Amino acid sequence: MSETVEPFIKSYYETLDKNRSNISVQFADDAHIVWNGNPLSGGVTLAQMYGTMPETRHELGSMDIHVHANSVIASVAGKVRVGSGRSSNLFGFHESLIIQNLNGLKFTSSTYRYIYKPRETAVLFG
């Protein structure tokens, strides 16, 4: 199962950024979700919440995947741009995910958190 998890996770962030209305199909109906400290129940609720938010663009920086019994535990970190143009904001993010094969891969748990607001300029060491 671990071979198919990384593409599944990457497709989740693509869907989140480009086609939010379809995000619920990647979650179990009773998935436990905490988004920036706010508890949600299931992918439909998550899709509804994202439907009210500005657009996002996620850039994955790291992904750590561990198979445990009948599930996979994944930790993902990176940057996310929220909004567009001059009004956009760049944040770091971290998400912990539990994935199970329930007639196809599904997220059964997700904890998403903005972790910092990095400066947009690169530091060059010379």
Automatic annotation (TrEMBL):
GO terms for cellular component: cytoplasm; nucleus. Its main location: cytoplasm. One of its GO terms (biological process) is mRNA transport. Residues 4-114 form the NTF2 domain. It holds the Pfam family Mtr2. PROSITE patterns: NTF2_DOMAIN. It comes from the Eukaryota. The keyword Nucleus applies. Keywords: Cytoplasm, Nucleus, Protein transport, Transport. Has a role in nuclear-cytoplasmic transport of proteins and mRNAs. This is Nuclear transport factor 2.
